[in-house]
Amino acid sequence: MTNVYNYAKMSIMNGQTGSIINNLLKIWPNNTVAVYPWLQKQGIYRQLADQYVKSGWLEKVGQGAFKKAGDTVNCNGALYALQTYLGSSIHPAGKSALQLLGYSHFIPANMTETKTVLFGFQNEKLPAWFKKNNFAVGVRYVSTSIFPREFSTGLTSFQSGVFNITISAAERAALEFCYDVPLKESYSELDQIFSVLNTLRPNIVQSLLENCRSVKAKRLFMHLSEKHRHAWVGKVILEKVDFGKGTRSLCKSGRYYGKYKLVVPE
Are 144 and 179 within 8 A, CB to CB? Predict the structure, then answer.
């Protein structure tokens, strides 16, 4: 630790900090969070980072996390740090991913919650600095085993300002939406969304259904896809999908669909 302190002190004394901070600001995307592991790779250790905060170059957003002075960081800018620097699987999912992909006009603003929905693998946690900031307001995080760890089918790159983040593509987002019904999202809203999902890729759907661990989500996904008679449904090989056993109910009383042993609201 003494060596690190001396390095920071010497850098300040000989003027190297100007060059270091200039290089840092060039490679650091605007309106995103930077974390210590990445800063250290750029030669910026804890004491030097703290000095940049005191000098007004950086602002702390939490323990081990920073933003450039004057930047406005939203949820996407924080997710950039999680995904790019920390290797996190956490991503916009379900209804939120569909909204980012342009389906927002099919989602009534007055129906159910309007929180940003994030999915991550089971037991994966949001860092404290993320949860304690303004960009976490209105975020609902779901830690789930709906898919196996490291299963990346159905994820896509999304441009947010000058940087990209990973979000669920429409096929995966639709399954995640099904996973959230009925406890967090409404069946009627989901039904509306499925009415316009006529361009899903059957090969992606096939892989997702075969790897999805939620029986309810798979059954609901196929029920609504068939209800709206999408052409791509005919290319999905249902025999390869495990739909489990027993009945799944979304409500206490409703309509029963025998093919998928599913009870849905009238």
Answer: yes
Which residue, among 166, 144, 191, 31, has the nearest Cα to 100 in the 3D structure?
166
- Domain check: are 96 and 130 in the same one? yes
Specify whether 23 is located in the same domain as 117: no
Residue where one domain finishes, among candidates 68, 101, 121: 68
Residues 144, 178: contact at Cβ < 8 Å?
Answer: no
Please indicate, yes or no, whether residues 211 and 256 belong to a single structural domain of this protein.
yes
Range of the domain at 45: 2-68
Pick from 37, 42, 28, 12: nearest CA to 71: 28
**Residue carrying structure tokens 């980072």:** 49
Straight-line distance from the first to the last Cα atom of the chain, in angstroms, rounded to the nearest whole number: 66
Q: Is the pLDDT of residue 45 over 60?
A: yes
| DSSP 8-state assignment for residue 115 | P
Range list of H helices, 74-196: 75-85, 94-98, 128-131, 170-180, 187-194
Residues 81 and 172 in one domain: yes
Give me the count of residues in the chain.
266
**Which of 199-211 are b and which e, b meaning 16 or more Cβ less than 10 Å from the residue's Cβ?**
ebebebbbbbbee
Cα 10 to chain centroid distance, Å, stands at 41
Enter the pTM of the model: 0.90
Who has greater pLDDT, 10 or 185?
Answer: 185
